[in-house]
TrEMBL record:
One of its GO terms (molecular function) is manganese ion binding. GO terms for cellular component: mitochondrion. This is Xaa-Pro aminopeptidase. Its cofactor is Mn(2+). Keywords: Aminopeptidase, Hydrolase, Manganese, Metal-binding, Protease. InterPro entries: Aminopep_P_N, Creatin/AminoP/Spt16_N, Creatinase/aminopeptidase-like, Pept_M24, X-Pro_dipept-like. It comes from Daphnia magna. It comes from the Eukaryota. GO terms for biological process: proteolysis. Pfam families: AMP_N, Peptidase_M24. Belongs to the peptidase M24B family.
Length: 435
């Protein structure tokens, strides 16, 4: 390690590193002044990619051929698939309408959220908006319209006007060309035109009336104002149930993205197990699983993880993750990662010192047996309630075999043992000295 070297050697190395960094920076500065003369081979290609990186707000095939295929808006999802999703949604909307009224669907993106002043949190796109567009930009709205009794529809995306000063600080933003050519949406306009557009559409269909479909759980001031002004010819409808009924059925490309997300968190968890040792802090395990998730391709963790040592694992949503894990204790980690819009969610327990005690091994095997049984039982037929009931019965049976709920005789009583509330389970765990 550098810290173990003598000061003379260290400063000699530092001079070399500094000199190399200056050279790299000078190279980067000079490359911004794109030469007008043609460059041979890879140099010309590199400049073209740099120009594309400065043009688009998110990865595209031309700038990220290692990530995207031609026509894909996001990894594995082609713009035709996004269009198919919009089409299916409007077909559902048409069926839910009585056919005598026009339809206007509004789906908005997420907005930036700030932790302090001008310091933003990491931006996460709204899942419904991402599902329909593939757009990763904040403060964008998608409108889809159809005339009364018509199966045809139009999609229009509204984006903020480009602010050159913002681009200097934050990089390129979506423009109209990006929306039409990259996202594959039929029409594009600026955000300031949403209200006039909606008012015009409502006026054109004032005789028939208009169903405005939106998420009632999200505030959208522009839409709220239009609805309040034109309330006589408008019926507000909830788009969420229709949209989520589409999202619950996954395409082959979505299934592959989910597999990759699960594979990443599984591998990151194994790496975290490897670095576990007594007296490690829960926050260090958190850092380890996040580091390996990102290094393996995830954008970030899907949610604040639970990293709980010992009895803290009995607190279901424990996310303080700030305590030391003692020798002989078990650690529970509930973590997942996000991979281009698709998240994983995995919970695992292991002994912090790498060795199970007899009682720990008994409890672990009891739960593992239930998990393996349920995986074999999973298919497209049984609803989650049936799986839950099966889990309770099997868990109650296994717990009884290792000393819990000894007085339970019937299947129903054993199921009750398996479904005890967290406080009672905590007491049972403590009584068996399982940590």
């Amino acid at each position: 390690m550098v810290v173990s070297r003598s000061p003379r050697i260290f400063f000699s190395m530092w001079k070399k590193i500094t000199k190399r960094n200056v050279t790299v920076q000078m190279s980067m500065v000079s490359s911004r002044n794109f030469s007008r003369s043609p460059l041979p081979g890879n140099k010309q290609l590199d400049l073209q990619q740099n120009q594309l990186l400065r043009k688009y707000p998110q990865p595209v095939f031309e700038s990220h051929p290692h990530l995207l295929k031609n026509g894909e808006v996001t990894p594995l999802i082609h713009k035709d698939e996004y269009k198919e999703r919009r089409t299916k949604l409007m077909q559902k909307v048409s069926k839910q309408s009585d056919g005598s009224k026009a339809n206007l669907v509004v789906v908005q993106s997420s907005s930036k959220v700030y932790m302090s002043g001008k310091i933003p949190y990491v931006f996460r796109q709204d899942s419904d908006f991402l599902y329909l567009t593939g757009c990763l930009e904040p403060d964008v709205a998608l409108l889809m319209i159809s005339a009364p009794g018509s199966d045809n529809f139009e999609s229009i995306v509204f984006i903020p006007k480009i602010d050159s000063n913002t681009e200097v600080w934050e990089g390129p933003k979506a423009d109209l060309e990006f929306c039409l050519n990259i996202l594959g949406i039929e029409q594009a306009n600026y955000f300031s035109q949403i209200a006039p557009f909606m008012c015009s559409f409502i006026k054109q269909n004032h005789l028939s009336g208009v169903h405005i479909w939106r998420d009632p759980g999200r505030s959208f001031q522009i839409v709220d104002d239009v609805i309040s002004q034109k309330s006589g010819s408008i019926i507000a409808r909830d788009i969420v149930p229709l949209l989520h009924s589409l999202r619950v059925i996954k395409s082959k490309s979505e299934q592959e993205l989910m597999r990759r997300s699960c594979s990443i968190i599984a591998s990151a968890t194994i790496e975290t197990m490897k670095m576990s040792q007594p007296s490690v802090c829960e926050s260090q395990l958190w850092a380890c699983v996040e580091y390996h998730s990102r290094m393996k391709g995830a954008q970030y963790l899907a949610y604040p993880p639970v990293v709980a040592g010992g009895d803290r694992a009995n607190t279901i949503h424990y996310i303080n993750n700030n305590q030391l894990i003692n020798n002989g204790e078990m650690v529970l980690m509930d973590a997942g990662c996000q991979y281009y819009g698709y998240t994983s969610d995995m919970t695992r327990c292991w002994p912090i010192n790498g060795k199970f005690t007899n009682s720990q091994a008994e409890a672990y095997e009891a739960v593992l047996d239930v998990q393996l049984d349920l995986i074999q039982f999973c298919n497209e037929r049984p609803p989650l309630d049936i799986l839950f009931q099966r889990m309770c019965r099997q868990l109650g049976k296994n717990l009884q075999q290792i000393g819990f709920g000894k007085n339970a005789k019937s299947c129903a009583e054993r199921a009750q043992v398996g479904s005890r509330d967290s406080k009672k389970i905590s007491e049972l765990v403590k009584s068996k000295h399982l940590t």
